[in-house]
Amino acid sequence: MSAVDGQPAEPPGAQAPSAAPGQPDLTTASVLVTGGTRGVGAGIARAFLRAGARVLVCGRTEPSELPGADGRTASFTRADIRDPEQAAGTVRESLALFHRLDVVISNAGGSPYAAAATASPRFHAKVIELNLIAPLHLAQAANAVMQEQGSGSIIMVGSVSGTRPSPGTAAYGAAKAGLQHLVTSLAIEWGPAVRINCVVPGFVATEAAAEQYGDPAVVAAVAATVPLGRLATPDDVAGACLFLASPDASYVSGACLTVHGGGEPPAFLGAGVRSDLIEHVLL
């Protein structure tokens, strides 16, 4: 039986894996992770493998090594999820492999730096397509399957860029803000069979951290601004996804779970404002 929703997920005669000690038990759950070949997506894939799930990851290029954990490895399908047909194809591939689809994690996204004043219309359209429209198309395809099953969980990976100003990545921030709103609407439209939630990471240390934040000194300076004193890891984001996919979150839908280590302190705290004045303003 599936730990996600109590429905059978295994083909006849299959031997289900077991969850690693200390992991949520998602044994027999079937999971699709977009952008799951590296960075946060690979961390999410590994976490679900450790929890006993069967995992399919997709990307535009097959990596030399697929995410693996506890002697188990994710399956891979090549897809550009900006293409609605290819996005739907990942759902069909999941069904072909696993015979059902319990969890979809829409992780693929991102944007290079580009000043809003000079970025081209095509650039802005592509950023919004990847970070907002593609997750919607994927969710539509997954919802059709999950409604027929009678259950399922869809998790969108957002960003704190969608909750505060995002200079240099304005279209990206706007798309991520739209993603969070999308989650609240789909939770109403698609419940009670399907739960829709969003994980909202802050700064995350991945193999591409230097590309995102700069050299190690800059990364350390960024980490020092976080109240918990460090950047998030892919495992931190994965843990939030595991919770939202698990039975412990069976009454959680339409929610946005922020994973940012306490957030970014207000700029006025570093401006020499007297603490008693800050207290007076806040009160």
Describe, in plain words, how this protein is organized in 3D.
With 283 residues, the chain is α/β, with parallel strands linked by helices. It has 8 helices and 9 strands. The chain has a 7-stranded parallel sheet, with helices on both faces. The protein has a two-stranded antiparallel sheet with strand order 3-4. α4 links the parallel β7 (152-157) and β8. The chain starts with 29 loop residues before the first strand and ends with a helix. Mean pLDDT is 89; it is low at 1-15.
Element layout with pairings:
Elements: E1 30-34, H1 39-50, E2 54-59, E3 68-69, E4 72-73, E5 75-78, H2 84-98, E6 103-106, H3 121-149, E7 152-157, H4 170-190, E8 194-201, H5 209-213, H6 216-224, H7 234-245, E9 256-259, H8 275-282
Parallel strand pairs: 1-2, 1-6, 2-5, 6-7, 7-8, 8-9
Antiparallel strand pairs: 3-4
| Class per helix and strand makeup | alpha/beta
**Separation of termini?**
52 Å
Assembly level:
single chain
User: Whole-number radius of gyration?
Assistant: 19 Å
Question: How confident overall, as mean pLDDT?
Answer: 89
What is the percent of helical residues? 25-40%
Strand percentage lies at 5-15%
With strands numbered from the N-terminus, the spatial order across the biggest sheet is: 5-2-1-6-7-8-9
Shape: globular
What's the main sheet like?
7 strands, parallel
H/E series, N to C? EHEEEEHEHEHEHHHEH
Parts with pLDDT < 50 across at least 5 consecutive residues: 1-15
